Amino acid sequence: MRILVIEDDAVLRDVVVSSLRDAGHHVDQAADLGAAEHWWRVQRFDAILLDLNLPCSAVRGSAMGSGLALLQQARRRGDNTPVLVLTARNQTPDRIAGLDSGADDYLGKPFELAEVEARLRALVRRAIGTQDVSTVGQLSLERNNRRFRVGMQPLDLPAREFEVLWELMSPPGRAVSKRSLSDKLSGYDDALGDNALEAFISRLRKKLQHSGAAIRTLRGIGYLIEADGGDAA
């Protein structure tokens, strides 16, 4: 899984990040609201660990902000990434507020690292089960069948192009970084050359020309797929 850990306590954050990486997950981390919002917007994650009391910047003594506000903002823009709240605010009213704000699960501090990972796995399984099909234009991804279609016609792709398009469609309309796509492709035997990702994107664009979907480049960030507005450059 690719996981974002949002936690301002450096010691606790390092412990959680190290544990998740040791378990084989890709982990990014944020210590304040600004970094958290940036990561959440530009990268696709399978799950997010969210603390509630967060500084507005990484500078010592900065004002504190609300992780719940960050969560509510993400939900308002249609982001359904599974979120596990980790917080010392563990009273019943706090739990209710967190769940009503869009959290998928809530775990009070202190906690066991093994339970954190188990809850993340459960959240991701649940999310996959409720998001079987994604559609952009006439392009659709059927996750359970691991199959793309354009209209009623299957879209057959080589393995690496398939994985790139899968990432862009999970979910569509969200920026996916070049780093994330490169990590996805690095599991294959062939070395990933400097221009390989751009070549895969170029080939996919040609195959999607009449699908009503287009891959857009976000310079300095990565790519996203969206309904074709006539400019995929």
UniProtKB/TrEMBL annotation:
Residue ranges for the DNA-binding region feature of this UniProt entry:
131-227
PROSITE patterns referenced in this protein's UniProt entry, alphabetically? OMPR_PHOB, RESPONSE_REGULATORY
- For the Response regulatory domain, which residue ranges apply? 2-124
Q: Which residues carry this modification: 4-aspartylphosphate?
A: 51
Keywords of the record: DNA-binding, Phosphoprotein, Transcription, Transcription regulation
Ranges for domain OmpR/PhoB-type come to 131-227
Q: Name one Pfam family in it.
A: Trans_reg_C
SMART domains reported in the protein's UniProt record: REC, Trans_reg_C
Q: Respond yes or no to whether keyword Isomerase is given for this record.
A: no
Give the top-rank taxon of the lineage listed in the UniProt record for this protein: Bacteria
Provide the protein name.
Response regulator transcription factor
What is the scientific name of the source organism?
Comamonas sediminis
Lineage of the native species?
Bacteria, Pseudomonadati, Pseudomonadota, Betaproteobacteria, Burkholderiales
